[in-house]
Amino acid sequence: MNRRVVHTRGGLPADVLTVIEEPEPTAPERGQVLIRTTAFTVHPGDLQSIEAYPGKAAQPVPAGVEATGVVEAISPGTRVAPGVEVGGRVTVFPQPGAWSQWITAEAEVVVAVPDELSDEVAAQMLANPLITVMLRREAQEHLAT
Question: Are 68 and 100 in contact (CB under 8 A)?
């Protein structure tokens, strides 16, 4: 089974998030990579998007956008980044529904993880630098005015 964190309405994450079980994903389609997750981050932005979700969803909305894991399968003919291989550790961002035991990601958002990084650090290595650059630019613009 695949456990996935989801919500069906907006609100405080502690009140609206739940875990569902669903079948494990099948083989990835062309251009995709199947990943068994080992760690995922919980960013303030993730929580804000859950709180701000409008209305009520007809189907559960998967939570999270960033995760680290092990490649279980790569669809035939799919071009992947250097170092991405079956059995290898990878991180992925953006990946809607990343708070899940298994994810099927588009190959272009999958990056190999260096051996010296823990899964917990690797799960943050794509979004955190981007956020840092955005914050720095915002601070520079603020100081310039």
Answer: no
